[in-house]
Amino acid sequence: MAAGNVAHEKSSAVKGQATSAICSLEAFLGHPFDYIIVWGGTAGLVLAARLSENPNVHVGVLEAGQNRLGDMLVSVPALFSKLLGNPDYDWMLKTVPQMMYVRESTADYDDRATLGGDQSWSASELAPYFRKHQTLDPMETSNKDRGFM
Q: Which of 27, 53, 93, 139 is the most buried (most CB within 10 A)?
């Protein structure tokens, strides 16, 4: 495994400051983790996020592939089709067709709650669950190279 292909938890022991999610193999091996998740993927990263909600739990994630931070093909959602079938990015494994997740509008959720007579399905009631699985880690203010965003 090359240095830079290893991810670790985002909270640092140094005054709770955020650290990079990418580190060298040596740094990763030198850190005591409570859990190590191999192959992040959707489920693995959800599991890591849930486990790390406890500030006393340290979670390490090992992910295959190159460090693609700053790569426009990875950073720009509209370019995802350029990744498919490209062996530099795609493992080229075949599987059954998958679904793509796109959240509906607030009005759609509210309408469905009204039609079903159950306001627990309204957008405002579901919002905490959306926030729990959809997050944006803000860019460090010291990073002046924002051209790929």
A: 27
The whole-angstrom separation of Cα 29 and Cα 91 is 26
Half-sphere exposure of 126 (CA within 13 A, CB side): 17
Model confidence pTM above 0.85: no
What confidence tens digit (pLDDT) does each residue in 63-108 have? 887 888 889 998 888 888 899 899 998 888 888 887 777 778 899 9
- Inter-helix orientation angle 123-133/106-116, to 10°: 130
Distance CA 29, CA 60 (A): 10
What whole-number distance in Å separates Cα of residue 127 and Cα of residue 124?
Answer: 5
The answer to whether the CB of 8 falls within 8 A of the CB of 60 is yes
Q: How far apart are CA 64 and CA 74, in angstroms?
A: 15
SS3 87: coil
